[in-house]
Design goal:
CATH class: Mainly Beta
Oligomer: single chain
Bound molecules: 2-acetamido-2-deoxy-beta-D-glucopyranose
Number of strands: 9
Largest sheet: 9 strands, antiparallel
CATH superfamily: Calycin beta-barrel core domain
Number of domains: 1
Strand content: 35-45%
CATH architecture: Beta Barrel
């Protein structure tokens, strides 16, 4: 957790001499509003530091994230097949979850879009570290200026340009899939 905090500080200090706008854009939200997190989100775009992960994301047609209390279901459509993952996460001012040897730490950043989430996701194993930044929305298609704000955010974070998902691709259903045992 401390390492993540330091990472964020480093990322933020990169923007120190940059215009104030970067400081605004990379500001983590102080407090997670779990109520706001609830429901079904579509991933609009992602910026992934690891190039293999980026290529995989680029081949993914759509990603749905359904958050119910402290359970989160991720449904990815790849080659017309829906792949499901379900997790419990811990709230607080960071979202944390573990999968195998991986620790994931999510931090929400400020966004001017009221039905969107911007989340940095730090992932770490004993010998590997990477970071992804995702832009999610309750809407399927956003205004160009909303995507531009996200593009500016990932630039401020020194991350690769976002891969924007095709909004015409079908989302996978998550209804009735809250039974975790289906996915474990
Ligand atoms: C994503 O895939 C398209 C072709 O399907 C390719 O043109 C583009 O360069 C890829 N982008 C990344 C970041 O891999
Ligand atoms: C979420 O939690 C509330 C209160 O603890 C409970 O009433 C509700 O059924 C839960 N919803 C789901 C989808 O688990
Ligand atoms: C978050 O962004 C909004 C709109 O872009 C801005 O008005 C607000 O001051 C920002 N909040 C913080 C804490 O930076
Ligand atoms: C993952 O988190 C757990 C609990 O916080 C910690 O004990 C473990 O060392 C972490 N693993 C890595 C690879 O950071």
């Amino acid at each position: 957790m401390f390492a993540v905090f330091v990472t964020l500080l480093c990322l933020m200090s990169v923007g120190h001499s940059a215009p104030l706008v970067c400081e605004q854009l990379v500001k983590p939200l102080d407090q997670l509003d779990l109520q706001h997190l609830m429901g079904k989100w579509a991933v609009i775009a992602g910026s992934l530091k690891n190039s293999d992960s980026a290529q995989h994301f680029n081949r993914t047609d759509s990603v749905t994230v359904d958050i119910q209390n402290s359970t989160y279901i991720q449904a990815s459509r790849v080659d017309d097949t829906c792949q499901y993952r379900s997790h419990n996460f811990q709230g607080g001012n960071l979202l944390t979850l573990r999968e195998g040897n991986f620790n994931f730490t999510g931090t929400l950043l400020n966004t001017s879009c009221s039905d969107c989430l911007v989340m940095t996701l730090d992932l770490e194993t004993h010998n590997y570290k990477s970071v992804d930044v995702y832009f999610l929305s309750k809407r399927r298609q956003l205004e160009p200026k909303e995507v531009e704000e996200f593009t500016a955010q990932v630039e401020c974070l020194n991350m690769p340009p976002p891969i924007v998902m095709d909004p015409t691709k079908e989302l996978c259903p998550t209804e009735g899939s809250t039974d975790q045992r289906l996915f474990l």
